[in-house]
Every structure is written in C-alpha cells, then in structure tokens.
Write a structure and sequence with these properties.
The protein has 3 domains: about 10-70 and about 160-400, TIM Barrel (Alpha-Beta Barrel), CATH 3.20.20.300; about 435-640, Rossmann fold (3-Layer(aba) Sandwich), CATH 3.40.50.1700; about 650-760, Sandwich (Immunoglobulin-like), CATH 2.60.40.10. The protein is built from 22 helices and 28 strands. The termini are far apart. The protein has about 750 residues and is of the alpha/beta class. An 8-stranded parallel sheet has the order 9-6-5-4-3-2-1-10. Strands 11-16-15-14-12-13 form a 6-stranded mixed sheet, with helices on both faces. The chain has a 5-stranded mixed sheet with strand order 20-28-27-22-23.
Length: about 750
C-alpha cells in the first residue's frame, strides 16, 4: 500500500510539474493578501486606490505600469555620439504623439531630459499634464522621473554638488542632506516628481564605471549618507505643496561585476550579499524611501529583474519595502535580448512581473503593454498581481499630492543657485578633497612667483563635474555656464599676484624654467554606465608621459586626480611632491582645489574607498584575513587606505577607554577617546570608529566601520568623543538567509590607530 501511494505521488508530480511556469515562485502571502498588508493608515488614500482599481480597465492598469522616455513624443531629438546614450532631447512636446501614448496606451509615467531653464521645464510639465488630464479617462496624473544625481543636474543655472563618492569623502552626512534639499528647492515645483537618486550600490569594484555614483566601499558609510539624502528630499517641508520621491539604486549587487564592466554578471554569495550589500538599501527602507530601481545585471546566474528571491523574498518579505519597484533602462527586454533567460519579450515580461517589478522603464516601445495584456488575458498573470503593482503606483502618486494638483507652479518658479545652496556645494567640495601625499610642498607659499598648470583636466569644466551633468555625458565645455571655473581659471583668481600659465606636454619644459611648481590636473573625461568601461586602471600613456616630462624639469610637481574612480599612477608617485585626490567635485570644484593649494582651506577629506596601487592586487579595507595571506602591510598594495587623508595641521589620538571590558548581549559598552590638534592651525578631523570581531563562525572582516563624527579643533584644542557599542547592532552579522547572528567572544574597538579589547559573554 505504501509503495502504491508513493507511485501515485510521483505520478501526480509528473502531471503537475509541466504545467508550472519555470520562473513562477510560491507566493506567501497571496497577491491580494500582500496588497492588504501594504495598506497605509491613510484611509482617504486607500479608499481612492480601491475606487480607482474598481473603475480601471485592464489597459488603464497596465499603462500605469509603464514608463516611456520623453524622446518618443518629442518634436526633435539627438541621440548623441555615445553608444547606448539616452537621447539628448530638448523638452518639447509633439502633442499628437503624446496623445497616442495617453489615449491608446494609458501611459502613467515619463522620464528624462536635458538641462534647460526652469521656465521651460515648468511650461513643459504644464503641457504634459494638460494633455494627460484631457485624454486620461480617470484623470490619473503623470509622474515624471529625472536622474538628478548630484544636484539638479538636468536644470540650467542649478546648484551642482560633488558626486556621491566625494560627498562620502567629507564624512559629513549634512552635505548629503544639503544636496537633496537643493534638488527639492530647485525642481519640486517645476514638475520633477520622481528623483532617481540616491545610489547606495556598494563601491566594491573600482573598475566599475558607475563607481563615482556610490558612497564608497563601506556599507555603514553608504547607509547613513543614503538615508540622509532620502530624508532631505522626501521630508523637505519647504517645497510644499510639492513633494518628491527618492529612489534607491540599483537593487542589488550591481556594483561588483566580476569583470568590472557595466551590467555584467556578479557572483556574490548569499552571506556576503546580506552583510555588505543589503544594509545600505535597508537603511533607505527604514528612512521611508518610496521607490527602488533594479540592477540591470545578474547575481549568481539569475538576472535581478527576473529574480523572485531578490525582488520579493528579500526586498519585500525580509526588508519590508512596500513602495514602487521600477526597472532600469530597457531591462525587461534584455531578459530576452541579452541575458537569454526568456525566449521573447512576452516571456521576459512574465518573468519580470512575477519576480516583482511594478513599472517597466520600456523606454522606446510599448511592447511591454501588449505582452502583459496577453499574459493577463491568457490567465498566466493573475489580475490580482496587476492590481498589486497598480495600487503601489497609485499610492505613490497620491502620497506626492499629484491628484490634488498635478500641475507645476503657475507663477515664477523657485530661484536656482541660491546663495545658501552654492555655499553648501562649495563647502562640500572643499571637504571632499583628499590630500594623499604632501612632502612639504603644500600649501604653496604666498610669495609664489610662477605656477605652470597642465593636464587634460587643467582647463576643463566637464572634467570636474563628470557624467550626469547637463547631459547624460557632457562632451563639450560649451554646454557649461560661464561662471563655472576650471582648475586653471580658479588658480589664476586665487593666486592673483602670481604668474599662472597653462602648458601642454610639448611646451611644459620650457614654461617651467622659472616656475616654482608644476600643477598637473590629470584623470578622466566624463562618462557613465557602459561608455565608461575601461580595460586598464592605469592612467593612459599620454598622461603618464606628461607627468614624466614635468618631473624631468626638476620642479616640484603637484598631482591632482580628477576622476570618478582611482586611476593608477603608482610608479610615478615617488617623484611627485604632493598628490591630491579631487574625484568629481562639481561646479565649485575648481575653486575648492585652488583654495586647498593656496592654504586658504585646510584639507579634511578622507578616502571613502581603498585606493589600489596595482591593477590585479586590490582588496577593500574590510577584507578577510586570508585576503592578505601573502601580504603583511597595506602599503604594499594601496596608494591610500580607507580613511586616509592628510591635513595642514596634525592630530593626536589618546586615552582610548571602555567603560566595560566584559558585556552581555543585553548591555552596551561605551568607548571614549581624546583628539588633540597638535599643529599650528585650525583643522577638521573625521573620527572613525571600527569594531573587530576576533573569531566568527563566518569569516569576519579585519575591521568594520560602525560610527564616525567630524569635528573642528583649534591649535592646541582637545575634544573627547564617545561611541556606544551596541552588541545587536555593532557586534552581530547576518547569516546567509538574513538572520542576525550574535556570537560570544573577543572583540576590539579601534580608533585613530589605537585599540581596546573587550569580551562579549
């Protein structure tokens, strides 16, 4: 009897399995139960969602799940010279095309643009919503998305902050908040509802072309910087009645591709994903972020856009996110065209929707509409699954107040580049510059007679700002306002009593004859995403030759790296008097660099990532012990370690203490340390606190950042800082399934080169 039951069971499986969709996953709770769980306490909003869903046709629902690029209803477009570039479209509307998108396809969201005036953006948004409100049967407003990545970078005369990698180098979350506040003040009232920022991908691979969009290699630093941005944008009461949604990018594992190139495969273990990649995104969920954008690559063999485990089991069920999930650029169709996990667009749509996406950034076609409609009509995608996503999209629009007033400001748009915003951007640029090396050459003497300036970024505005500035990839300085200084023009202004000359590789030797120093601004041209892929992290041969020619003059050489990632100059550094990592400091970056070189500003930036010395031997500061099996000194493999940064003064760390040397999981210990300015001028110092777990069931990092604080000290001044070590927050680590593991054992607190041991019982 038991044998017969067994064969009947096997037969049942054989009959059932072929009918199951290959990407279908068990859904617990059900789609309708999940929708109920996601309801908010706002009864008015939830009632409106129920009402609309009851009235909407299938076509109207699918339209809310689509986002089309503005090039498809523009009067003209220029697709630019970069492979894969979004069109550089002036904001102008072909009404006939737009009506088709709204009337036939019921499109609920559009995106993109270039930097035009605030008045033009206001008029564009007004026209877009007017056409929508005329031809949208249920008067559901459009939500418009823009990639404002470091300030309002798609708006003329806006405040352009340093990129996120620079913001991280300041170790001041206030600058992340300041940036978000500026974006809100300058764009909320002109129809930019949905801001595709911040990027909290971990800066885990320095070759990756979007490295500069991250907050560096540490998950804690990324977490607090990203959360500060979200709160600055979404909680900004000064933009009322206009509100904006922030977007967490790009969930998850995007930033650590095995070959370093954009959108390519990443192999990341479950435990590593939980410990290093999840926390920054979790911090944004906890901060109340309203939307997520998805990684266009794959993690451990599964494209993220087709991964139920990542988009639903992890993001929804473990992390508790209840907002809108939007795809990245064309990434549903890529499941078929490039990932090859779907035989056609219809199967790609099925996989993406059932995995958990709510809105498809199509962005050039409406084939997602046709595919999803067929899938619902065939019964493969339940209507309840559609209602779940549409409810999320409608809730987002309702929470932003778009149903109350979908139109932009009717009178004068808000001021751009306010005195306060520009001041904040300049201060962020100043504090983001990291002085890696200084052999007494900086600051430059006040009686400096002549400076020679050279390098590809010496007289480049676009170089200082990088990608996502005025255009997706700005390829000409002609696009930039006249008030933006270059390194060269800023130096001429700062050293107004000094002869400052621009040189080339050909004439640098002759021009340097009477010079006191040579300043070389090297690095990269602007890039983003796939166009930023490189084969070699070393600085290119022409730039290396320039550095060698400058060094051959015998004059002191100051090297400034203006780049979105750590380009290598290892063999050239010994003959360089000073090395300043400038990153991508934005519109105020030229001024900030000149002020640091003159000594007007005391540098205070610290590396938010490990600057490698060699292409093939690199590891982050929070590496595992065995990653240095053959190496016993960081200096062998790095130009600058995480947290490194010199000042024109000096600081000493003393008296590291713990109030308890033994604790249990239910109590904390408080560490204290005294920092003293031992130099002769005021300075700012970022105090970084690390914890080391000596032994773990899962191999532990050699240390992990848990807290930081930036202070200002006058000469001779001391301050005592404290850090409360909470066992469950600071001493635990996640298992591969995300459960918190807290193991008794030996630990250390590390700060300023000092360490103190304690025991968790």
């Amino acid at each position: 009897m038991r044998i017969s039951h067994f064969f009947l069971y096997i037969l049942g499986l054989v009959l059932i399995l072929p009918a199951c969709e290959p990407s279908e996953q068990p859904s617990t709770p059900s789609f309708s139960e999940r929708r109920n769980l996601e309801r908010t306490d706002n009864a008015e909003i939830e009632s409106k969602i129920d009402q609309l869903l009851a009235e909407m046709t299938l076509e109207e629902k699918i339209g809310q799940m689509m986002q089309i690029n503005n090039s498809e209803y523009s009067l003209s477009e220029n697709r630019g010279t970069h492979f894969g570039a979004p069109p550089d479209v002036q904001v102008s509307i072909d009404t006939t095309k737009l009506i088709t998108f709204i009337e036939k396809y019921k499109i609920g969201s559009f995106l993109n643009g270039v930097a035009v005036s605030k008045e033009r953006w206001r008029d564009y948004s007004q026209q877009l919503q007017e056409v929508n409100m005329r031809y949208n049967r249920l008067k559901i407003p459009i939500i418009y998305g823009v990639d404002h990545m470091h300030g309002a970078n798609y708006l003329e005369n806006s405040t352009i902050f340093p990129h996120s990698i620079n913001i991280a180098a300041t170790f001041r979350t206030q600058f992340s908040t300041d940036e978000a506040v500026a974006v809100g003040q300058e764009t909320a009232a002109i129809g930019h509802h949905w801001i595709f920022c911040p990027v909290v991908d971990l800066g885990a691979n320095p070759v990756w072309p979007r490295f500069y969009e991250t907050y560096g290699e540490d998950p804690y630093l990324s977490s607090v910087m990203g959360a500060a941005y979200v709160k600055g944008l979404q909680d900004n009461v000064n933009t009322a009645p206009y509100r904006q949604a922030a977007t967490a990018k790009h969930f998850i594992g995007y930033s650590d591709p095995d070959n370093g190139w954009d959108r390519t495969p990443a192999d990341i273990s479950d435990q590593r994903l939980q410990e290093f990649f999840v926390p920054p995104f979790q911090a944004l969920v906890d901060a109340g972020i309203k939307s997520f954008m998805i990684n266009g690559g794959e993690v451990s063999g599964i494209p993220v856009h087709a991964s139920y485990e990542l988009l639903t089991a992890l993001l929804r069920d473990q992390m508790g996110f209840k907002g809108v999930v939007v795809t990245d650029w064309e990434d549903v169709v890529r499941l078929h065209s490039q990932h090859k996990v779907a035989k056609d667009m219809k199967e790609a749509t099925y996989k993406a929707v059932m995995a958990g996406i709510d809105m498809s950034m199509t962005p050039y076609t409406t084939n997602f509409f046709d595919a999803l409609k067929e899938l619902v009509e065939e019964g493969r995608v339940p209507l309840e699954r559609i209602d779940l996503s549409v409810a999320r999209v409608l809730r987002l629009k309702l929470e932003l107040g778009l149903f109350e007033d979908p139109y932009p400001v009717q009178t004068n748009p808000p001021a751009t580049r306010s005195e306060e915003n520009v001041k904040n951007a300049l201060e962020a640029a100043r504090e983001s510059l990291v002085l890696i090396k200084n052999e007494g050459i900086l600051p430059l003497a006040k009686d400096t007679r002549k400076l020679v300036v050279a390098g590809m970024n010496a007289d480049s505005k676009r170089g200082l700002s990088g990608g996502w500035t005025l255009r997706w990839i700005p390829d000409s300085d002609d696009l930039f306002p006249s008030y933006v200084p270059t390194v060269f023009s800023a130096l001429k202004k700062e050293f107004d009593q000094t002869q400052v000359e621009l040189a080339t590789a050909a004439d640098i030797a002759s021009k340097a004859t009477n010079a006191d120093a040579i300043i070389l601004a090297v690095g990269e041209e602007p890039y983003s995403e796939t166009p930023g892929n490189i084969y070699d992290m070393n600085l290119d041969k022409d730039q290396q030759d320039l550095i060698k020619r400058a060094q051959a003059t015998g004059k002191p050489v100051i090297l400034i790296m203006v780049a979105g990632r750590p380009r290598l100059v290892t063999e050239l550094l010994p003959e360089t008097g000073a090395f300043l990592w400038a990153g991508l400091p934005g519109f105020e970056g030229g001024t900030a660099i000149a002020e640091v070189l003159s000594g007007k500003v005391n540098p205070s930036g610290k590396m938010p990532f490990t600057y490698p010395a060699f292409v093939s031997h690199w590891y982050p500061y929070n590496h595992k012990n065995m990653e240095r099996f053959f190496s016993h000194a960081d200096s062998m493999n790095t130009i600058a370690g995480f947290g490194h940064g010199l000042s024109y003064t000096s600081f000493s760390y003393t008296d590291l203490k713990l109030d308890k040397s033994q604790i249990t999981g239910q109590e904390s210990t408080t560490a204290s340390i005294t920092i003293t300015n031992t130099g002769n001028r005021a300075g700012k110092e970022s105090v970084l606190w690390f914890v080391k777990d000596e032994v773990g069931t899962v191999t532990r990092p050699v240390r992990a950042l848990k807290h930081f604080e930036k202070i200002t000290l006058q000469p001779g001044e001391s301050k005592t800082l404290t850090f409360e070590v909470n066992p469950h927050e600071d001493l635990s680590y996640p298992s591969k399934s995300g459960e918190k593991v807290l193991e008794p054992g030996d630990f250390k607190v590390i700060c300023g080169g000092l360490e103190k041991a304690f025991v968790l019982n």
